[in-house]
């Protein structure tokens, strides 16, 4: 059995060596296991690429990939999956939060017959903002891209090689790993692992980044937002029709009562706002089609160590 560890690296020049050492110590508990570590520098502003090159020069198990610009965590994972050769591919973070020491928990669980297994944190070490964001993401994923309600997704997970091969066939620039996994298999599992505090630093995801990630995933892998837009449009039309009937009735029954400008203005603003919102949603889909047709790259490799 061979394991491939794929780690996107961003602002982790002081943490990635500790993560690598933890992987080595974990593999040493099962000496018969072959392994490789694929480190993807997502155009980090620090010196993490120099650290990666040094690690790769000292250890033939390590492969380093340097991207030409920051394409985001999911595109960096795609770049790593394309170079992974193991029977199982394990994804984890570069900041020490995901417990590399518990990787064999994932291995043992996937060997029960699952295609993909996610580590599940009973007690999360994330800030309240990130926990709330994860909860919102889970609920939206359940409603829009078919995530099972009993499944908890995290950045620490393992997949079989054929799933990774299917994922890297996705050619478009809007990669969203969970969406690609859910459309490839329904054989998904969870196993409880520890969630630790970062060795140092803060999350690279801002509120804007999280919203962009959600929009990316849900518009790239589902048309349900468009269907919701249709229902909203129908609802607004019904509300407007009902309001019109009410105004006519009021004018016929009470001709002395003037039609209110306030209600008219509120109706116009509400309707106009909904139209702009729905046009923006449709525009998001059209923009993604345009970018995909232009074959915008998912990632560009500047340099590699192998």
UniProtKB/TrEMBL annotation:
Source organism, top-level taxon: Bacteria
Entry keyword Coiled coil: no
InterPro entries: Glyco_trans_2-like, Glycosyltransferase_2, Nucleotide-diphossugar_trans
Keywords for the protein's UniProt record, in alphabetical order: Cell membrane, Glycosyltransferase, Lipopolysaccharide biosynthesis, Membrane, Transferase, Transmembrane, Transmembrane helix
GO molecular function: undecaprenyl-phosphate 4-deoxy-4-formamido-L-arabinose transferase activity
Domain Glycosyltransferase 2-like span(s) in chain numbering: 4-167
GO aspect biological process, one term: lipopolysaccharide biosynthetic process
Any one of the GO CC terms: plasma membrane
Transmembrane regions: 228-249, 261-282
Keyword Transmembrane recorded: yes
PANTHER family, sorted: UNDECAPRENYL-PHOSPHATE 4-DEOXY-4-FORMAMIDO-L-ARABINOSE TRANSFERASE, UNDECAPRENYL-PHOSPHATE 4-DEOXY-4-FORMAMIDO-L-ARABINOSE TRANSFERASE-RELATED
Official protein name in the record: Glycosyl transferase family 2
Organism: Fibrobacter succinogenes (strain ATCC 19169 / S85)
Lineage, highest ranks first: Bacteria, Pseudomonadati, Fibrobacterota, Fibrobacteria, Fibrobacterales
